[in-house]
């Protein structure tokens, strides 16, 4: 398969892996105890030895993780040049790659050759799981795969870019340590533009991360994007975890203190757009009501009760280059649906 992974294994050992190691150890210990029928003192001593051995195994795993985390990022790069006048891009919060790829329609979508680039949010897998379960095989052979996993917590967050063309450069995260532990951004540089795949932090059910999200993350992330647009046109896509206007969710009156629709989050998004960025869907469809996220509860998708949380954003100078920006409601497998756009490279 002609596909490259975005980074070396940099994640802590997954909980599943540790459980497997512990389970194997317990089985082995029981076998020894059944064979021996030794005295209580011997059993106590054996338990003590087992505990020490178990701790040593855990330390060895932790030591190995530290060494892996020190490895350099290595990407398979190219000239970033598309040989077509237009590029089709998809972005989808899959809410777990292992779960979503159990759905036939999702696997078919990830193999669809009509897209030049597919961006994914919320992988919920670390490098070890990704490799062990050969999850890269779920993508079409025509894609090169670039990944950024969460470093602080196994099975959390994570983003990916699958591209038919090898980028000129690929950058994980935004270069600010307090934001760079959760694997939330991946930037690919192509000949005519930058593409940033992003999964913005959720403010939390009790808004416990609201200040972090609006006063720290939003500020630093917007500064990062401003730096990119000074070099070449920049497209941001992903789950931005904000419904900007009342038209962007089905129940605005009942959600004014809900994460994703607080005034603080909406104001920050407004400030960002006012700096010279364009929400391509709303630009092309000023009055259309369409959602990209549906709660798994209360048949919200069937009743079209959702939120528009996923976006293609482009700097204003190049906004005419996005000629199509839409939401695909036909694909199943996640609580989000894919968003899709078409970019005319001749207008960049």
Automatic annotation (TrEMBL):
The record marks 336 as: Interaction with DNA substrate. The record marks 310 as: Important for catalytic activity. Probably binds two magnesium or manganese ions per subunit. Its EC number is 3.1.11.2, 3.1.21.-. One of its GO terms (biological process) is base-excision repair. GO terms for molecular function: DNA binding; DNA-(apurinic or apyrimidinic site) endonuclease activity; double-stranded DNA 3'-5' DNA exonuclease activity; metal ion binding; phosphoric diester hydrolase activity. InterPro entries: AP_endonuc_1, AP_endonuclease_F1_CS, Endo/exonuclease/phosphatase. Keywords: DNA damage, DNA repair, Hydrolase, Magnesium, Manganese, Metal-binding. GO terms for cellular component: nucleus. It comes from the Eukaryota. The active site is at residues 199, 239, 336. Mg(2+) binds at residues 93, 122, 239, 241, 335-336. It holds the Pfam family Exo_endo_phos. Residues 1-55 are annotated as: Disordered. The keyword Zinc does not apply. Residues 91-336 form the Endonuclease/exonuclease/phosphatase domain. The record marks 241 as: Transition state stabilizer. Belongs to the DNA repair enzymes AP/ExoA family. This is DNA repair nuclease/redox regulator APEX1. The lineage of its organism: Eukaryota, Sar, Alveolata, Ciliophora, Intramacronucleata.
């Amino acid at each position: 398969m002609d596909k490259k992974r975005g980074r070396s294994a940099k994640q802590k050992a997954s909980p599943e892996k540790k459980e497997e190691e512990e389970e194997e150890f317990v089985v082995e210990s029981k076998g020894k105890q059944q064979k021996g029928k030794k005295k209580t003192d011997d059993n106590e001593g054996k338990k003590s030895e087992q505990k020490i051995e178990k701790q040593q195994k855990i330390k060895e795993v932790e030591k190995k993780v530290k060494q892996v985390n020190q490895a350099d990022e290595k990407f398979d790069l190219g000239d970033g040049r598309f040989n077509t006048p237009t590029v089709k891009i998809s972005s989808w919060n899959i809410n777990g790659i292992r779960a979503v790829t159990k759905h036939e329609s999702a696997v078919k979508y990830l193999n669809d050759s009509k897209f030049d680039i597919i961006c994914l949010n919320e992988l919920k897998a670390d490098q070890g799981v990704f490799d062990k379960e050969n999850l890269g095989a779920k993508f079409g052979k025509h894609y090169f795969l670039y990944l950024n996993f969460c470093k602080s917590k196994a099975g959390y967050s994570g983003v990916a870019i699958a591209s038919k063309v090898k980028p000129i450069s690929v950058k994980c995260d935004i270069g600010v340590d307090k934001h760079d532990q959760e694997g939330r951004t991946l930037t690919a540089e192509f000949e005519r533009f930058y593409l940033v795949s992003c999964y913005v932090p959720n403010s939390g059910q009790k808004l416990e991360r609201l200040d972090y999200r609006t006063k720290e993350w939003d500020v630093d992330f917007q500064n990062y994007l401003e730096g990119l647009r000074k070099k070449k046109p920049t497209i941001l896509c992903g789950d931005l975890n904000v419904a900007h206007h009342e038209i962007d969710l089905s129940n605005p009156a009942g959600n004014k203190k809900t994460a994703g629709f607080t005034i603080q989050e909406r104001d920050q998004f407004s400030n960002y757009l006012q700096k010279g960025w364009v929400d391509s869907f709303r630009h092309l469809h000023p009055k259309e009501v369409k959602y990209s996220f549906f709660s798994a509860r209360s048949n919200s998708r069937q009743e079209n009760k959702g939120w528009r949380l996923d976006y293609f954003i482009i700097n204003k100078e190049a906004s005419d280059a996005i000629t199509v920006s839409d939401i695909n409601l036909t694909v199943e497998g996640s609580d989000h649906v894919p968003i899709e756009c078409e970019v005319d490279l001749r207008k960049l």
